[in-house]
Amino acid sequence: MKIPDFEVIFTTAFEKYAIKAIKFSSLDYLLKPIDLEELKAAVDKARGRMDTSVYRQQIETLMQNLGQGRRKQEKICLATTAGMEFILIKDVIFCKADGSYTSFTLKDGSSLLVSKHLKEYENLLSDHQFMRVHNSYLINLKEVKKYIKSDGGYIIMSNDMHVSISPRKKEDLLYSMRRL
Question: What is the model's pLDDT at position 2?
Answer without folding.
Answer: 52
